[in-house]
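name: query_chain
kind: protein
chains: 1
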Amino acid sequence: MNIRPSSWGWKMLKDDLHKWIILFGAPTAALITYVNVTKGQATLRPIPEGYNPREEEYYKSPITRWFVRNVYVGFQQNYEHIMHQTWQGDKDRQFFMLRKEVLRLQKEDGDYKGYYYAPVSARFLRYARAVKEEEREAQGWRGD
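structure:
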């Protein structure tokens, strides 16, 4: 008897693969065959006056038409979503530019309390005034 590695893992993989193919693959293939035989593919006909075709009517396969009708997002909805994103991005850009201009004017003028206003403690002002008065008195100048 030869000693060799077990093939149990490989056999279990094959068994699981066959199980899932039978459980899902066979019914799916049967459904696709049934739909294609009973419904058939779409035929090209002239569009009557004043009729607006639905989106799914542009596709040939009945399965594709079902997916377009029930699963996928339509062209119109996708277009409006993209247009809203574009509008929102432009609005955000305009807000950013306005904020940038406000900050520039605050920095340029310096008369607004905002991002460029640095509050100073009164303690340091009193100390600076006292030092300056001492210097002036040392030089002999009186402020009366």
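note: The mean pLDDT is 88.
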